[in-house]
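Async update (no meeting this week)

Hi team, since we skipped the sync, here's where things stand on the single-chain job. The sequence we agreed to prioritize is pasted below, unchanged from the tracker. I ran it this morning and attached the output directly underneath so nobody has to dig for it. Comments welcome in thread, and please keep replies under the output.
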Amino acid sequence: MNSHNDAPEPDVVEADPLEPRKLDPARGVRGKYFSRAQEGTNVVLIAPDLLETFPDSESVNRALRTLKEIADRTARRAS
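Output:
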């Protein structure tokens, strides 16, 4: 006898890839990534009005290196 709903029931419900994973803090290792984070990249936020001038990390680094060179030259002249 057929039921009103002939669609097969799913055997396995797939996990939603966008749903945050449930982590068990008791299984974590304190400081596991601390040294890696200390030697890694520094993250800074660029103000929205500067995004056109500095669209990526390369442009920011180039500007900072140029500014450092100017500051170094100015400091040497003042000494």
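Quick observations from my side:
The CA atoms of residues 42 and 57 lie 11 Å apart.
Helices lie at 34-39, 57-78.
Reply here if anything looks off.
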